[in-house]
Amino acid sequence: MHQITLQEQDSDTTFFCANDDVLLRAGLRQGLALPYECNAGGCGTCKFELLEGDVDILWADAPGLSERDKRKGRLLACQCRPKSDCKIKLRLDPQCLPKIKAQRQSVKLITTRAITHDILEIHLQAQQAAEFLPGQYALLMINGQIQRAYSMANLPNAAGDWVFQIRKVPQGQMTTVLFDENALKHAVLQLDGPYGTAHLQQKNRPIVCVAGGSGLAPMLSIARGVAMDPLLQQQPVWFFHGGREQRDLLSQEQLQQWTGLGQRLHYIAASSNQHIPNVYHGYIHDVLEQQLGEQLKDCEIYCAGPPPMVQSIERLTHQLGIDQTSVHFDRFF
């Protein structure tokens, strides 16, 4: 166990990190507001300067660091394990203060089922209550080696149920195991979470969910959270879902049933593939603007999916002059 001293403008803060842990998650588990977003080396939000000590860098070529960052000696807290006591410099972000402290725990497989041709729903169970906020994610580890971040698709519960909807990645180390029924049955599974700041807010306004690819999971959790929140019982939910093929998309009836929102949920399926019938054609951000436009200023907006999609929607919200405190992004790197 190593002591990590965090140098701030006015004072120093200390926390502890084990050899097999990374600086970011160790600090978050101890209740510090370390800045972060993806937890996977892609976004660069958790950049810091190492002032003293030594670390192991897990992914030297992580896209979250630019060449300029590397020249200046900046590192990613989500990709560094301490080899000694360390002193680091970064600016805390109050928006990242954990509302629920993450923890590491063992989980067991309960069931799996296919959602689409390449998305598998995996139901895991822990010995203690599943505590998280709708829209958050956790890190799933298999056999103590492979680790990936996945968003929960269900709601927090006392039974310890964690449900994930995971898209198959061709030749992906993690999904090769997850989509192999026999391999998954014999795997040792651990969970580290919850993490993420793009979670459901208790603001009594219409809700817009935008999902691309496996961004469906956190948006399902958000929509289910709306259905269960007494404050939001009168609010409609606009659910935009983008996919390349017909088989990537769902039906309005499916979503209304899964979320428990019934007629309050309005499903808008979109695809850039002009040959798909009964959907809106075009990129999801264009369809979003066409359907709601200026109405978006009066909504709470949640978005999850590939970075290019999220970036396009982020640009759209800026162009429309939308208050960015009402926009919540989860980029899937």
UniProtKB/TrEMBL annotation:
Span of domain 2Fe-2S ferredoxin-type: 2-94
GO molecular function terms attached to this record: 2 iron, 2 sulfur cluster binding; oxidoreductase activity
CDD domains for this protein: fer2
Domain FAD-binding FR-type: 102-201
Pfam families, alphabetized: FAD_binding_6, Fer2, NAD_binding_1
Signal peptide start-end: none
SUPFAM superfamilies, alphabetized: 2Fe-2S ferredoxin-like, Ferredoxin reductase-like, C-terminal NADP-linked domain, Riboflavin synthase domain-like
Alphabetized InterPro entries for the sequence: 2Fe-2S_ferredoxin-like_sf, 2Fe-2S_ferredoxin-type, 2Fe2S_fd_BS, Beta-grasp_dom_sf, Cbr1-like_FAD-bd_dom, FAD-bd_FR_type, FNR_nucleotide-bd, MRET
Name of the protein: 2Fe-2S iron-sulfur cluster binding domain-containing protein
Species the sequence originates in: Acinetobacter rudis
Upper lineage: Bacteria, Pseudomonadati, Pseudomonadota, Gammaproteobacteria, Moraxellales
